[in-house]
Design a protein that fits this description.
The structure holds 2 protein chains of 2 kinds.
Chain A: H1 8-12, E1 20-23, H2 33-41, E2 47-51, H3 55-62, E3 66-71, H4 83-91, E4 95-98, H5 101-113, E5 117-120, E6 135-138, E7 146-151, E8 155-165, E9 171-172, H6 181-186, E10 188-198, H7 201-206, E11 222-225, H8 243-251, H9 256-266, H10 272-279
Helix pairs in contact in A: 2-3, 3-4
Chain B: H1 7-18, E1 26-29, H2 32-43, E2 51-52, E3 57-60, E4 73-77, H3 80-88, E5 92-96, E6 100-101, E7 107-108, E8 111-113, E9 118-121, H4 128-134, E10 136-141, H5 161-166, E11 176-181, E12 184-187, E13 196-200, H6 206-211, E14 218-225, H7 231-241, H8 246-250
Parallel strand pairs in B: 1-5, 5-10, 10-11, 13-14
Antiparallel strand pairs in B: 2-3, 3-4, 6-7, 8-9, 11-12, 12-13
Helix pairs in contact in B: 1-2, 2-7
The chains are: A alpha/beta, B alpha/beta.
Chain lengths: 288, 254
């Protein structure tokens, strides 16, 4: 079995300007934030971000990395609207492909199965159909029904965060919902999984129900061990959402000065180890 | 006893009434008063309803809202991707919110203003297009005003009756049952499927509702007062489902 362990910086080195990046998790839950921050600090630009959006989208918008967002919502859960994403939208600095949450699933599934679209009734009658990128298809069967052809959301890169993984790239989630992380990986050319802890392969099945082994190594190209890698989003049972920190993050959207202060402290500080020191998440950190 | 019920408690009962007759489907009310109303329906006259914990579990019983550590009786696992199975097979009645809604029930909570440069970015389309075209929908609007009830919504996220009708057969699973607000109960039970005032909450006049609505409202021949909770329903609301009184924060008594 190949040892796929790499660093956040190794992931960034594979990302080019203009790429389409899919990010797993949901809202402010189990987001691969150490990878997102590494991209935010990098010199890549003009990204298209595909996400059930949360602080991943907001942070990348705040640092101007984003050209386009493909999304159905962008929320911090306990704070309903992602404030940095709102700022970018209301300033007109990003374009969007607006989708329904379920269409989003179909788009990822179509990409994973290598078909150009999947049909659904979802979207009909709504203003989603005003977008040139969303087209319809007529059923070739006797019903002749016109359906929405949700385009494949093919990704250059997928980033997901799991609770446990082995060095070969098998991954396990331990919370209540797998979200769509496996589909993000299957929809992408290059797939990177950060994990709270890298464990021996046999510890995966002994560490949770067999159904929790949602990611297998055919879905991943790199494994990044990042304890607290989803901070400040929720990563139960390892840790809950850091609500106080999230409020501070949200407040940083109130002015350019507030954002610069936040950015200097939590982003410009350096890589994930430095971030953990600044945020006090030093448990298990050498020289912590 | 009914006269002692607050406005918020009338709203809870009106929400519960939305689910009357639904039987064994997923009742999925989103928001505080919707959740209380849905659980009230199940605890009283609609015992077969299936309900979520707001995340990935289907839970039994009249679990209190706003009490995070209240025990859960788990019936089933329902992660997000399974939710689409329920929505697209029509085994669900959702109650959503709306930032704008028009006379045909077209709803917007995506954004206000221009598509490329919105004045206010709101939730995005979320699940509204799929919900409205695939399963029964109702709406909960805690702030009935002409800012919400508009002649034309900026963006159609939830599909209304006029647009569904244009779809022909593809619109056959569409249905908006009720719109419950802090002032009134509305439906679409008119020949042309336009929004109709059905009931007002105690202390609210028809004129008040008309003035707070930015389009011409159809008005039922006899606008009745919304039903007061029974003694048992009041006990369920106050002691079992919403012991912390969160309903009164959403709709203050007046």
């Amino acid at each position: 079995m190949i040892d796929k362990r790499i660093s956040e910086d190794d992931v960034v080195s594979e990302i080019r300007d203009g790429m389409t990046i899919g990010i797993g998790g949901w809202g402010s839950r189990r987001k691969p934030m150490s990878l997102v921050r590494a991209i935010a600090r990098s010199d890549v630009w003009d990204l298209t971000v595909v996400s059930y959006g949360g602080p991943d989208v907001g942070l990348l918008c705040a640092v101007g990395k984003v050209r386009k967002v493909v999304y159905a919502f962008c929320s911090l859960d306990s704070i309903a609207l992602e404030p940095h994403f709102r700022n970018a939208r209301q300033a007109g600095t990003i374009s969007t492909l607006e989708l329904d949450e379920g269409m989003f699933l179909l788009g990822l599934q179509a990409a994973a199965w290598r078909v150009p679209f999947l049909p659904t009734r979802v979207g009909l009658g709504s203003d989603l159909m005003r977008q040139a990128e969303i087209r319809t298809v007529v059923s070739p069967y006797d019903d002749g029904e016109e359906l929405v052809a949700v385009p494949a959301l093919t990704l250059d890169v997928a980033l997901v965060h799991m609770h446990r993984g082995d060095p070969g790239g098998n991954g396990q989630y331990l919370n209540v919902d797998p979200y769509f992380d496996d589909l993000f990986c299957m929809a992408a050319t290059r797939r990177f999984m950060s994990v709270e802890r890298v464990v021996e392969t046999d510890e995966l099945a002994s560490g949770g129900p067999i159904q929790s082994l949602r990611i297998n190594r055919l879905m991943t190209d790199g494994v990044i061990e990042a304890r607290y890698g989803a901070h400040f989003s929720e990563c139960v049972p390892d840790y809950g959402r850091d609500e106080a920190f999230q409020r501070e993050y949200a407040a940083s959207a109130k002015s350019p000065e507030a954002w610069e202060t936040w950015k200097a402290k939590y982003l410009d500080c350096g890589g994930h180890d430095e971030y953990r020191k600044v945020t006090g998440l030093t448990e298990g950190l050498s020289n912590g | 006893m009914g006269s002692t019920a607050t406005r918020a408690e009338h709203c809870c009962v009106a929400v519960a009434e939305c689910f009357r007759g639904d039987g064994e489907i997923l009742a999925n009310p989103i928001g505080t008063i919707p959740m209380i109303g849905g659980r009230l329906a199940r605890a009283s006259f609609e015992p077969d309803l299936v309900m979520t914990d707001g995340e990935a579990l289907l839970i039994a019983g009249a679990r209190p809202v706003g009490v995070d550590d209240a025990p859960k009786i788990v019936e089933a696992w329902n992660p997000y991707r399974s939710m689409f199975d329920l929505v697209w097979s029509g085994r669900r009645h959702v109650m959503m919110g709306a930032s704008q809604i028009d006379a045909h029930g077209n709803q917007n909570f995506a954004f206000v203003g221009d598509w490329e440069h919105p004045k206010a970015q709101l939730l995005g389309f979320r699940g509204a297009p799929g919900n409205t075209i695939q399963n029964t929908t109702s709406y909960w609007i805690p702030n009935h005003s002409a800012r919400v009830f508009v002649p034309q919504v900026d963006v159609v996220s939830g599909v209304g009756y006029d647009r569904a009708a244009q779809l022909g057969a593809a619109g056959r699973f569409h249905g908006i049952r009720r719109v419950i607000t802090n002032l009134a109960v509305l439906d679409f039970e008119t020949d042309d499927r336009r929004m109709r005032l059905r009931e007002v909450h105690p202390g609210v006049s028809v004129d008040e509702v008309v003035a707070a609505t930015g389009f011409e409202l159809a008005i039922a021949d006899e606008v009745t007062e919304s039903r007061a909770p029974s003694e048992e329903e009041l006990r369920l609301i106050r002691e079992v489902i919403d012991p912390t009184g969160s309903r009164e924060q959403e709709v203050p008594n007046s």
